[in-house]
């Protein structure tokens, strides 16, 4: 026989097989036993959660020869006919391809005919939100007052697109996303019955990748079985789903926590070389940070975690990292994820955010000071002095002598590594002797220089230079502009970078250039100041008037000063 996918072979045939929808199946079973069947139902919810399966089970239960029953017997001729699709009393329609007024009018004309074999004619309309406005209007009256032998079951993933006049005529049941635990349990049962050996961790990876859909989970399990040799392993599941192993995520977050930039960039490079998607990787980092935060807040609620299983490394990391850091991680990663949607350089954004997270400011936990007898006496003395000072103020004595030390405001110590002061004098000297040939020569070989760094296994240095740009050069020095202060400081303090880059440029251009780094904001100020002073210092005649370019002078004669806009 032709091979059938697992989700088709193991499609639920009774309400007990519908996973994670107890609130729906229990209500329908009670209604069947009490013979309180409605004329119209609306099943809404995410894909792969059992809406169409529950509709077919309900159709079998109302037509079963043993009715009233809470579960169809699946043995009588009617149940078997509905299961294999041969019974004409159960009509399944796809509203995506039958969404016109004519199809609905055809249904409206045929509902008056009695069923052939069963007690009810059941119309199951899948993706009902795809019906046109005219089709909905044609369905209204029939849906409100159908013949006694007709039941309508409407299924949709987008109930907000259905007119309220339709919804008000139906009993609505909302199917929810299936939890990872329920999906794992069902997949393990199916794998055992199918004689498939597996690792339990692989099932958890597949369940999390399915995002609450049983059909998606079984499709991924089918792929993993085909991909694997004798056993569905964790690596097989990671490969098929495109997910990232928890150990790799733990290693990446640990390196960020320890501010180990090199290890973080190496881990990212290793994952990307394995074919992992940068956007998917940053999403996994967000969810991993979220799980860390939830674990710190409520360690007992492990079922609420999206991406991790609580192992020893995860618990150890949760104890080390602080909640404020996790808030910062999630905020920075989320902003980067939004920016990555509009760029063709997702890898660059990923590497930059890793460096940024490694150098994010840390908030130290407050230290509890144990009070000793001496400290208690000191506190009492301070309180006594505060009381005396208050009395003096009440008596009108407010001018107290101020010592020279207290009058001088304390200088704020720089915190973090964001502040970088560029050597303004050296940069202006380069600008004074800058030539177009030198800067053009460096820019033309800049890509080759970055590629050479990569070949020498210096990817961490290349990441710092991804957004750097040579902006000016003289015969022996060039100015390198960085977008961020922190990258400029890291690059200029990295001896390996400042030694390696000039030697590579010398091989490529034949000239030895030293490097001066400058952040973008400071570069714009230095350049503007240099241009202004150069303009003021150049005079042309005895009257001391500034020189003017001959082309600008000619343009001024032609159009006048009011219409002339001079730009550098």
From TrEMBL:
Keywords: ATP-binding, DNA replication, DNA-directed DNA polymerase, Metal-binding, Nucleotide-binding, Nucleotidyltransferase, Transferase, Zinc. Residues 37-179 form the AAA+ ATPase domain. Pfam families: DNA_pol3_delta2 (PF13177), DNA_pol3_gamma3 (PF12169), DNAX_ATPase_lid (PF22608). Signal peptide: none annotated. It catalyses: DNA(n) + a 2'-deoxyribonucleoside 5'-triphosphate = DNA(n+1) + diphosphate. Belongs to the DnaX/STICHEL family. This is DNA-directed DNA polymerase. It comes from Jeotgalibacillus marinus.
């Amino acid at each position: 026989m032709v091979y059938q996918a697992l989700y088709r072979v193991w499609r639920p045939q009774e309400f007990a097989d519908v996973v994670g929808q107890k609130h729906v199946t229990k209500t329908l079973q009670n209604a069947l036993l009490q013979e309180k069947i409605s004329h119209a139902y609306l099943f809404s919810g995410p894909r792969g959660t059992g809406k169409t399966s529950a509709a077919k089970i309900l159709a079998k239960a109302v037509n079963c020869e043993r009715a009233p029953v809470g579960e169809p017997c699946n043995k009588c001729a009617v149940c078997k006919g509905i299961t294999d699709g041969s019974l004409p009393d159960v009509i399944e329609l796809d509203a995506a391809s039958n969404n016109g007024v004519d199809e609905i009018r055809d249904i409206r004309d045929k509902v008056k005919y009695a069923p052939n074999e069963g007690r009810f004619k059941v119309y199951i309309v899948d993706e009902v939100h795809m019906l046109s406005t005219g089709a909905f209007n044609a369905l209204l009256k029939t849906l409100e007052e159908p013949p006694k032998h007709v039941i309508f079951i409407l299924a949709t993933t987008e109930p907000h697109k259905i007119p309220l006049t339709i919804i008000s005529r139906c009993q609505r049941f909302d199917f929810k996303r299936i939890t990872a635990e329920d999906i794992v349990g069902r997949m393990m049962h199916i794998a055992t019955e199918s004689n498939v050996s597996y690792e339990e961790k692989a099932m958890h990876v597949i369940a999390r990748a399915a995002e609450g859909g049983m059909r998606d989970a079984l499709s991924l399990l089918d792929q993993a079985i085909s991909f694997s040799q004798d056993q569905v392993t964790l690596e097989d599941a990671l490969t098929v789903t495109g997910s990232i192993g928890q150990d790799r995520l733990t290693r990446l977050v640990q390196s960020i926590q320890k501010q180990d930039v090199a290890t973080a960039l190496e881990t990212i490079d290793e994952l990307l070389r394995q074919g992992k998607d940068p956007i998917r990787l940053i999403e996994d980092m967000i969810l991993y940070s979220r799980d860390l935060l939830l674990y710190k807040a409520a360690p007992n609620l492990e079922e609420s975690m999206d991406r991790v299983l609580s192992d020893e490394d995860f618990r150890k990391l949760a104890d080390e990292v602080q909640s404020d850091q996790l808030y910062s991680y999630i905020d920075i990663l989320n902003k980067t994820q939004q920016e990555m949607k509009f760029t063709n350089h997702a890898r660059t954004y990923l590497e930059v955010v890793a460096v940024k997270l490694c150098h994010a400011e840390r908030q130290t936990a407050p230290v509890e000071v144990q009070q000793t007898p001496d400290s208690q006496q000191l506190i009492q003395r301070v309180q006594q002095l505060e009381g005396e000072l208050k009395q003096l103020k009440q008596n009108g004595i407010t001018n107290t002598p101020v010592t020279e030390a207290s009058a001088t405001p304390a200088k704020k110590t720089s915190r973090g590594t964001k502040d970088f002061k560029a050597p303004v004098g050296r940069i202006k000297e380069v600008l004074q002797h800058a030539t177009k040939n030198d800067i053009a020569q460096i820019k033309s070989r800049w890509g080759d220089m970055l590629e050479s760094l990569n070949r020498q296994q210096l990817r961490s240095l290349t990441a710092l230079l991804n957004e750097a740009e040579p902006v000016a050069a003289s015969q022996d020095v060039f100015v390198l502009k960085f977008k961020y202060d922190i990258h400029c400081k890291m690059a200029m303090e990295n001896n390996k970078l400042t030694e390696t880059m000039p030697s590579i440029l010398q091989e490529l251009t034949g000239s030895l250039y030293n490097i001066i780094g400058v952040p973008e904001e400071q570069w714009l100020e230095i350049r503007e100041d240099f241009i202004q002073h150069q303009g003021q210092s150049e005079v042309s005649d005895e009257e001391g008037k500034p020189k003017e370019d001959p082309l600008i002078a000619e343009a001024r004669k032609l159009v006048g000063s009011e219409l002339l806009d001079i730009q550098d």
